[in-house]
Amino acid sequence: MEVRESIDLPAPREEVFELLIDLDRLGEWVTAHRAIVGEPPDRLEEGSSFTQKLRLAGVPFKVGWEVTRLERPQLVEWRGNGPGGSDARVCYSLAGNGGGTRFDYVNEFRLPGGKLAQVAGRAVGEGRARHEARESLARLQRLLADRR
Q: Are 50 and 23 in contact, with CB atoms under 8 Å apart?
């Protein structure tokens, strides 16, 4: 399953990028985020890893993430493994847009279970993920606008 969303943000690309990869600030804009488990890396680099506690549709779970690509200040990609064999790839791409930034968000994920679970979960899982992505990006936009 895949969710793609884009948004224009009212801040320079460098500022947006640093906010996006600041694990201490995820709770300010990522709606599903609950906490980072354990001691996170001081600065994200390729190969950095951390565990995130999330909550979607009332269900708490943890995902272990690894940064697989990081090109400051335009791209970060991480891959994660969650409960029951679920996995995800999340990619943030940033481009300058006048004085602001165009943020392209991609979340590819596989829910736990076999093919039947994937088909059954597609309607709920993909719809919920798209809703959470849109809400998170709107929060991010407000957060950056409030700083101006």
A: yes
Q: What is the pLDDT of residues 50-97, one digit of tens each?
A: 999 999 888 899 999 999 999 999 999 999 999 989 999 999 999 999
**How many other CB atoms are there within 10 angstroms of residue 125's CB atom?**
20
Enter the pTM of the model.
0.89
CA 141/CA 133 separation, integer angstroms: 12
Q: Between helices 13-20 and 127-146, what is the axis angle to 10°?
A: 120
Structure-token pair, residue 88: 């995800």
Domains of the chain and any CATH numbers: 2-146 (3.30.530.20)
Q: How crowded is residue 82: how many other Cβ atoms within 10 Å of its Cβ?
A: 19
